[in-house]
C-alpha cells in the first residue's frame, strides 16, 4: 500500500504552456477525505486568469503550430500522451485517491484505462471525413467539411476527475479544438499533474490550459466568456441548468452530463446471485458517488424478500477503511458538504415513511478514522411518490420498490426526472430487447451494471443532460459542419431568383 506523507503540496496552474500562480496569488486548501486533513494548496484563480487562459487557447486555435497541424500529427500527440499516462498511472491514481478518497483499486483501474481514450481518438483524428453531395443543381460541385468548434471550456466534477476530463479532452483535441479546463475545487490536483504529461508530450503552448478555483469566481467567468465556443460539463442538474442559461446569451454549444436516479429492475427469472452482486456494484462501489449509481431497485414482489436478505448478507461484508488499502471496498465521501447532504437524504427517507433495514448514518468504525464515511444504507417500502425515490443522493443509499406486472416495472423505472442509465436482470431474451425499447435512458445494461468503454457512447435523456461522450459520436460534439458550393458553369444564373 502506498503511504501518505504529512507534507502540504503546493500546485500552480498551467496557462499558455507555463506554470504560474493565480493572478491574485491566493490559494485554497484541498483535504484528504480519509484523514480530513489538508494535503495540497491550489491556486485560487479569478476572471483575470480565465481571460488569460481563453486568450491563449484562442491564439493557439487560430495561429501557430496547432492551427497548422495535420490531423495525423494531432493523433500522434494524443497517442504519445496515452503512453505517458500509462507510464505514470500509479502516480496519477495516488493523487486522485488523496484528493477524492475513492478506492485505490477503482482509481488505478481508471488511470490504467484512460490511455485507451487517447489511443482511440488519436486514431480517429484523421478519419473525420466530409462528403461529396450528389446535388440537384446543374454545374455545381458541392461537398461538406468538418472543422473544430473552437475553444472548449471543460468543467469537470470531483468524483472521477481524470476519467471524466478524458471523455472531453480526447475527442476535443482529436477534432482540433483548444481547451480551458476548470476542475472541481475539491479535486484539482490530478488534473494539474496530468498537465505535466501534456507538457512532456509536446503539445504546443495554449492548446490545453487549466484554471482552478470556485464556481462563482472561475466557472461563471469561463461560461460567460465571449471567447469560449463550447462548454463540456459534468456535474449536478442545477449547475447544468445555470450553465445552459448563461451559455444561451452567446449561443455556445453544450455537452451536459448531469445527474441520475437510475433503476435496476429485477424480474423473477433473474439469476438472483448475479443481480445482488450487480446492485451492490451499482450503489456501493465508489460509495455511491457516481452519476450512474443504480440507486433504485425495482424488484418483483415474488422475490423481494429473498433479494433483500441476500443483498444485506453480501453488503454487510463490505470492508470500509483507508481507500489506499487494497482490501478496502467502501471508502469515504469526498467532500464535507456531500457528506452532510447524504445524511439529510437519509433523514428525508425516514420521515417520508421508508423503512431503513441496513445502515442509516455515519460510519463510526475504528477503521474509518476521522474520515467522512457513511454506512451502506438500504431502505425498503419505498413508493414512487416519496422524495427518496426521485432525489439523487449521490451516496451509498439504496431505495427498494416492488412491482407485480411487467408494464408496471417499466412505468416505475421511467418515473423520474432523470434518464441516464438503467439495469435489467432477466433470463428472458424477449424481455431484454423490450427493456431496451421501453426504458427512457441513455444506457441500458442487461445482466450487468456500471460498465463503460471508450467505444460506446455515454449520456442521458431528460434532466440527465444532452450530448454524448465516448464512442465515435463524441467527436461530432466538437465539430462544425460546413457546406461548400463551387459553381463551374459558364454563365451566371438570374441573380434575383433563388437557385
From TrEMBL:
PROSITE patterns: ALDEHYDE_DEHYDR_CYS (PS00070), ALDEHYDE_DEHYDR_GLU (PS00687). Gene3D superfamilies: Aldehyde Dehydrogenase, Chain A, domain 1 (3.40.605.10), Aldehyde Dehydrogenase, Chain A, domain 2 (3.40.309.10). This is Aldehyde dehydrogenase. It comes from Dongia rigui. The active site is at 257. PANTHER family: ALDEHYDE DEHYDROGENASE-RELATED (PTHR11699). Residues 19-484 form the Aldehyde dehydrogenase domain. Keywords: Oxidoreductase. It comes from the Bacteria. The keyword Methyltransferase does not apply. Belongs to the aldehyde dehydrogenase family. It holds the Pfam family Aldedh. SUPFAM superfamilies: ALDH-like.
Amino acid at each position: 500500500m502506498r503511504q501518505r506523507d504529512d507534507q502540504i503540496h503546493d500546485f500552480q496552474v498551467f496557462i499558455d504552456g507555463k506554470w504560474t500562480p493565480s493572478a491574485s496569488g491566493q490559494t485554497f486548501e484541498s483535504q484528504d477525505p480519509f484523514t480530513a486533513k489538508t494535503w495540497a494548496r491550489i491556486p485560487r484563480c479569478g476572471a483575470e486568469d480565465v481571460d488569460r487562459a481563453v486568450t491563449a487557447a484562442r491564439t493557439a486555435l487560430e495561429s501557430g503550430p496547432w492551427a497548422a497541424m495535420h490531423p495525423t500529427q494531432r493523433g500522434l500527440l494524443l497517442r504519445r500522451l496515452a503512453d505517458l499516462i500509462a507510464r505514470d498511472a500509479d502516480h496519477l491514481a495516488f493523487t486522485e485517491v488523496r484528493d477524492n478518497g475513492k478506492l485505490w483499486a477503482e482509481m488505478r483501474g481508471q488511470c490504467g484505462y484512460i490511455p485507451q481514450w487517447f489511443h482511440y481518438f488519436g486514431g480517429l483524428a484523421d478519419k473525420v471525413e466530409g462528403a461529396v453531395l450528389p446535388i440537384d443543381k446543374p454545374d455545381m460541385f458541392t461537398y461538406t467539411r468538418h472543422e473544430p468548434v473552437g475553444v472548449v471550456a471543460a468543467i469537470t466534477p470531483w468524483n472521477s476527475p481524470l476519467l471524466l476530463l478524458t471523455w472531453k479532452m480526447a475527442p476535443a483535441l482529436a477534432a482540433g479544438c483548444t481547451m480551458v479546463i476548470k476542475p472541481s475545487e475539491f479535486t484539482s490536483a490530478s488534473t494539474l499533474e496530468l498537465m505535466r504529461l501534456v507538457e512532456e508530450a509536446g503539445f504546443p503552448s495554449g492548446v490545453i490550459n487549466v484554471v482552478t478555483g470556485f464556481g462563482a469566481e472561475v466557472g461563471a467567468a469561463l461560461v460567460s466568456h465571449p471567447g469560449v465556443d463550447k462548454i463540456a460539463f459534468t456535474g449536478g442538474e442545477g449547475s447544468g441548468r445555470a450553465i445552459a442559461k448563461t451559455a444561451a446569451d452567446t449561443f455556445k454549444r453544450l455537452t451536459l452530463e448531469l445527474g441520475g436516479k437510475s433503476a435496476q429492475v429485477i424480474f423473477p427469472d433473474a439469476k438472483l446471485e448475479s443481480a445482488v452482486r450487480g446492485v451492490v456494484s451499482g450503489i456501493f462501489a465508489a460509495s455511491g458517488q457516481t452519476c450512474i449509481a443504480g440507486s433504485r431497485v425495482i424488484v418483483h414482489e415474488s422475490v423481494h424478500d429473498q433479494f433483500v436478505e441476500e443483498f444485506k448478507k453480501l453488503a454487510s461484508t463490505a470492508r470500509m477503511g483507508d481507500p489506499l488499502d487494497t482490501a478496502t471496498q467502501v471508502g469515504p465521501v469526498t467532500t464535507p458538504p456531500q457528506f452532510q447532504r447524504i445524511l439529510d437524504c437519509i433523514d428525508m427517507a425516514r420521515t417520508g415513511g421508508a423503512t431503513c433495514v441496513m445502515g442509516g448514518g455515519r460510519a463510526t468504525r475504528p477503521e474509518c478514522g476521522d474520515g467522512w464515511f457513511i454506512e451502506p444504507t438500504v431502505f425498503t417500502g419505498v413508493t414512487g411518490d416519496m422524495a427518496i425515490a426521485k432525489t439523487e443522493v449521490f451516496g451509498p443509499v439504496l431505495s427498494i420498490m416492488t412491482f407485480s406486472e411487467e408494464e408496471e416495472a417499466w412505468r416505475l423505472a421511467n418515473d423520474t426526472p432523470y434518464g441516464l442509465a438503467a439495469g435489467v436482470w432477466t433470463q428472458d431474451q424477449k424481455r431484454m430487447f423490450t427493456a431496451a425499447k421501453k426504458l427512457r435512458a441513455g444506457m441500458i445494461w442487461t445482466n450487468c451494471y456500471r460498465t463503460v468503454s471508450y467505444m460506446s457512447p455515454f449520456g442521458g435523456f431528460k434532466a440527465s443532460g444532452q450530448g454524448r461522450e465516448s464512442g465515435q459520436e463524441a467527436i461530432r460534439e466538437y465539430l462544425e459542419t460546413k457546406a461548400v458550393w463551387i459553381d463551374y458553369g459558364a454563365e451566371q444564373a438570374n441573380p434575383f431568383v433563388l437557385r
